[in-house]
């Protein structure tokens, strides 16, 4: 299975996927930690967290997949939402809570 297929399967078969540095329990960068905190503040209890530090192919592959240069990256219902800055803006505007409400 290609890296692109692996990513596609993860994104399409899980309602909330966060490609991040580290794990949801132990984020290894501030942006990834902030992304996890935002999701928890939205009431999301099931996060499929993918630690890009464990697999260089996934780390580069997710950037190619989304055409987005940074990590973390959030996907909800198979759709790319954005990184931690976009998540924060959406959270502050109440948009992220609405998007995630069915998943909480």
UniProtKB/TrEMBL annotation:
Q: Which residues are noted in the entry as [2Fe-2S] cluster-binding?
A: 29
**Key word Cell inner membrane present:** no
Cite the PROSITE patterns for this sequence: GLUTAREDOXIN_2
Query: Which Pfam family, an example, fits this chain?
Result: Glutaredoxin
The UniProt keywords, alphabetically, are: 2Fe-2S, Iron, Iron-sulfur, Metal-binding, Redox-active center
- Which Gene3D superfamilies does this chain map to? Glutaredoxin (3.40.30.10)
**Occurrences of domain Glutaredoxin (ranges):** 16-81
Q: In the record, what terms sit under GO molecular function?
A: 2 iron, 2 sulfur cluster binding; disulfide oxidoreductase activity; metal ion binding
- Say yes or no: keyword Nucleus present: no
What the entry lists under PANTHER family is as follows: GLUTAREDOXIN FAMILY MEMBER, MONOTHIOL GLUTAREDOXIN-S14, CHLOROPLASTIC
**What family is reported?**
Belongs to the glutaredoxin family. Monothiol subfamily.
Q: What is this protein called?
A: Glutaredoxin
- Species this chain originates from: Sphaerotilus natans subsp. natans DSM 6575
Its taxonomic path starts at: Bacteria, Pseudomonadati, Pseudomonadota, Betaproteobacteria, Burkholderiales
């Amino acid at each position: 299975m290609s890296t692109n297929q692996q990513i596609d399967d993860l994104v399409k078969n899980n309602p909330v996927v966060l490609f991040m540095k580290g794990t949801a329990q132990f984020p290894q960068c501030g942006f990834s930690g902030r992304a996890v905190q935002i999701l928890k503040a939205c009431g999301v209890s099931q996060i499929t967290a993918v630690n890009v530090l464990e697999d260089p192919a996934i780390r580069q592959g997710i950037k190619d997949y989304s055409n987005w240069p940074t990590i973390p990256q959030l996907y909800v219902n198979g759709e790319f939402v954005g990184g931690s800055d976009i998540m924060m803006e959406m959270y502050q505007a109440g948009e992220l809570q609405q998007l995630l409400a069915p998943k909480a």
